[in-house]
Design a protein that fits this description.
Blueprint (H helix, E strand, L loop, with lengths): L8 H39 L2 E6 L4 H6 L2 E3 L1 H10 L4 E5 L2 H10 L4 E3 L8 H4 L3 H9 L5 E5 L4 H4 L4 E3 L4 H6 L7 E4 L2 H11 L4 E2 L12 H10 L4 E4 L5 H4 L4 E2 L2 H10 L4 E5 L4 H8 L4 E4 L20 H10 L8 H21 L2
Parallel strand pairs: 1-2, 1-3, 3-4, 5-6, 5-7, 7-8, 9-10, 9-11, 11-12
Helix pairs in contact: 1-14, 3-4, 4-15, 12-13
Bound molecules: 1,3-dihydroxyacetonephosphate and iron/sulfur cluster (SF4).
Length: 345
């Protein structure tokens, strides 16, 4: 055993106070930089007549600066009706594509072009088109989490907010292909009694939630309501009290702020939940692997205030969609918006 080295306590305390001062200064500088960045973004936005749309899974500071924060459906609806010249889509690539297809004359920017989606990636357009071809006579319903090329071979697009109602708007014996999320597809099949043919895709974030850890949390918080997104596995959905899109889960929590919640969806939604219900306890459902922050979507979190500033300043990176694909993809997206409007969604 080595001998313990004696360190003078007052030397230690002096060093501690010294580092505290440096850290405080660093924090102050960071706040000043952030405040300036926020002001600069607001200024650029005004000068360029731009609108910032943000998904609930974005970092808190992006949600705070966005003109509108919402789920995938709301983002598409806002994009469709904005009068801005530039749309900055703080979300992932397919959300930018959807906005571009709806507004071909506008510039659609995304802060980080690498912000993709594992669910969209699980459905390559050529393979999906072949699958559709192999099943003539089927109506094709695609989740919005797809590329524009997949939407181009789709009859109607859905989001998690309207998927159930849109499926139910078809006759009971309609033969339907549903892609790409197998969990959402299975969930809709189970609640509607349909037997849709499912594409075998999934989101890496929603597939990660741990059943065992949610059960343990329920034991710890026996009164807590479990909120789950339908992209979660069936075993997680079985534990849920409320299954719904991010907007639906938020709405439920806002309607019952006296409860406690275990939230099984990307943890970015907790920012808006806590903002709207500051007194309520929200516990993010943990992923299987406790060493990673897997309940955060690494794609969504690529966007930062710095990148948002740069993209507004440089008007880049810009989303572009091939005209031929855009022409086909816009139809099922517009169809979704029309049905949603009729349903009051
Ligand atoms: P919603 O925005 O429809 O809730 O979907 C969640 C999601 O995974 C977005 O990528
Ligand atoms: Fe795609 Fe999942 Fe990230 Fe949503 S949370 S963008 S579905 S990878």
């Amino acid at each position: 055993m080595g001998k313990k080295k004696h360190i003078n306590l007052s030397t230690l305390l002096t060093a501690y106070h010294h580092y505290q001062k440096i850290f405080r200064k660093e924090r102050e500088i960071k706040i000043i930089i952030m405040d300036n960045l926020i002001e600069a973004i607001k200024q650029l936005k005004k000068e360029k007549n731009a609108v910032i749309l943000g998904h609930y899974y974005q970092k808190g500071e992006i949600q705070d600066i966005a003109d509108y924060v919402g789920d995938s459906l709301a983002l598409a609806q806002w994009a469709a009706k904005t009068e801005a010249d530039i749309i900055v889509m703080c979300g992932v690539h397919f959300m930018g594509e959807t906005a571009k297809v709806l507004c071909p004359g506008k510039k659609v920017l995304v802060p980080d072009m690498a912000a993709g989606c594992s669910l969209a990636d699980s459905c390559p357009a050529d393979k999906f088109a072949r699958f559709v071809e192999e099943h003539p006579g089927y109506t094709v319903i695609s989740y919005v989490n797809t590329t524009a090329a997949v939407k181009a071979v789709t009859d109607v697009v859905v989001t998690s907010t309207n998927a159930r109602q849109i499926v139910e708007s078809f006759p009971e014996d309609e033969k339907i292909i549903f892609g790409p999320d197998r969990n959402l597809g299975n969930y809709i099949n189970s609640v509607t009694g349909r037997n849709m043919l499912l594409w075998d895709g999934a989101c890496h974030v929603h597939e990660q939630f741990s059943v065992e850890k949610i059960v343990e949390l329920k034991r710890q918080y026996p009164g807590a309501i479990v909120l789950a997104h339908p992209e979660c596995k069936n075993t997680v959905l079985k534990l849920a009290d409320v299954v719904g899109s991010t907007a639906a889960l938020l709405k439920y929590a806002v309607g019952h702020p006296e409860k406690e919640y275990i939230v099984a969806t990307e943890s970015g939604i907790l920012h808006e939940m806590r903002r709207k219900c500051p007194q309520t306890k929200f516990i993010p459902a943990p992923p299987n692997d406790s060493t990673c922050a897997c309940n955060e979507c690494n794609f969504m979190r690529l966007n930062t205030l710095e990148k948002l500033y740069d993209c507004l300043k440089n008007e880049s990176p810009e989303i572009r969609v091939e005209a031929e694909i855009a022409e086909k993809a816009v139809k099922p997206i517009k169809k979704m918006l029309e049905i949603s409007a009729k349903l009051g969604l």
